[in-house]
Write a structure and sequence with these properties.
The strands form three sheets. A four-stranded mixed β-sheet has the order 3-6-4-5. Strands 1-2 form a two-stranded antiparallel sheet. It is an alpha/beta fold. Helices cover 35% and strands 14% of the residues. The mean pLDDT is 94.
Length: 243
């Protein structure tokens, strides 16, 4: 159970809840990403997880090779998620009942924003361990407070990515851009910068706001939420200025 909880984005929706009062839409997944990860491509499946051949095309990416694809193979380094292989029917159920409805809800909101305002700014909110492990490219390294990602400049106007990074630094947070994360496939599903559809990913260091061992809020929770509320104020002003 401890290994499963280590992949949980605990309290992230609470930390970002202030955006709703500032006019944004907040969509929170009600299923754990270790069950199925809506941030991955639908074809990012490791065939070795399956008890039978997949009926369609599979395009496993670096995440599947590391054990963290659409369906996780590893909970932690050397700790398998399952003691058996999964049937095609099980995986298809997860896609149909969880992955696609989440993706559809997000797309519907983004499309509605574009119809109303002619633009959309999407923030994909995540959490990260305070230190990388053997499944990550930064294994053993301490991480910054925040990682901002834009698929190496392809999912958002670089000016927006730069503004986000500078605003978070202004609030006293250490920030890295596109390292060790470059942004998941979910950004591709929303973004088209040339059409004013901008999508970035923000990873929050869990050590800022929780005890990583017990998965419980720490005294830093309120302070970080206050900073994110201030960031949301700035983001609302930024969007109004762009519109």
């Amino acid at each position: 159970m401890e290994a499963l909880l280590s992949s949980r984005d605990a309290f992230v929706d609470e930390l970002w809840s202030g955006v709703v009062q500032r006019g944004a839409v907040l969509i929170a997944a009600t299923f754990p990403r270790c069950y199925i990860d809506p941030n991955r491509a639908e074809t990012d499946i490791d065939q070795d997880l399956l008890a039978e051949p997949w009926p369609g095309e599979l395009r496993p990416e670096k995440y599947s090779r590391a054990g963290m694809g659409l369906i996780r193979r590893l909970a932690l380094p050397g700790v398998p998620m399952y003691q058996r292989k999964l049937s095609v029917a099980e995986v298809q159920h997860r896609i149909d009942a969880y992955y696609r409805p989440y993706r559809a809800a997000l797309k519907a909101q983004a499309d509605a924003a574009c119809r109303r305002f002619g633009a959309v700014w999407h923030v994909d909110c995540h959490s990260m361990k305070s230190r990388g492990n053997e499944m990550n490219t930064d294994s053993g390294q301490a991480r910054p407070d925040v990682v901002v990602s834009d698929r190496l400049g392809s999912s958002a106007d670089p000016a927006f990515t730069r503004w986000v990074s500078e605003e978070l630094r202004r609030l006293g947070l250490s920030v890295q851009v596109n390292h060790p994360y470059q942004g998941g496939d979910l950004l591709n599903a929303i973004s088209a910068p040339a059409q004013r559809r901008h999508s970035i990913q923000i990873e929050l260091n869990r050590a800022l706001y929780m005890d990583e061992r017990t998965i419980s809020r720490s005294p830093g929770f309120a302070a970080l939420k206050s900073k994110l509320d201030a960031f949301a104020d700035g983001l609302a002003d930024y969007v109004r200025g762009q519109l």
